[in-house]
Amino acid sequence: MRRIYFFAILVIFITISFIIGMKTGSAFPPEAIFNGLFETSAEEVEEEPAPEPEEEEFIPDIRTVRLVSTGNIMAHIPQITQAHIGDGKYDFTPSFEVIKPYLKAGDFTVADLEGMQAGPDIVSSGWGIKGYTGFPEFNAPNELSEALVDAGVNIFTFANNHGMDRGVEGLMITLDHVHSLGAKTFGAYKSQEERDEPVILEHDGIKVAFIGYTYSTNEIPIPEGYEYCLNFVRDFSDITPVIDDIEKARLYGADFIAVFTHWGAAEHAHEPQPQRLREVAADLAAAGADLIIGGHPKFIQPAEWFFNPNADGSERATFVIYSQGNFISNQGENDGYNTIYNEFGLLLNIELSKSFDTGQTWISDVDYEITWVHRDWRHRVLPLSAVFESSPEDYNLSESRVNRLKSIYDFSNEVVERYGHLEDKVRAMDISEMLFNEASGGN
Question: Which segments within 104-245 are labelled E, that is strand?
Answer without folding.
Answer: 108-113, 155-157, 184-186, 200-203, 206-214
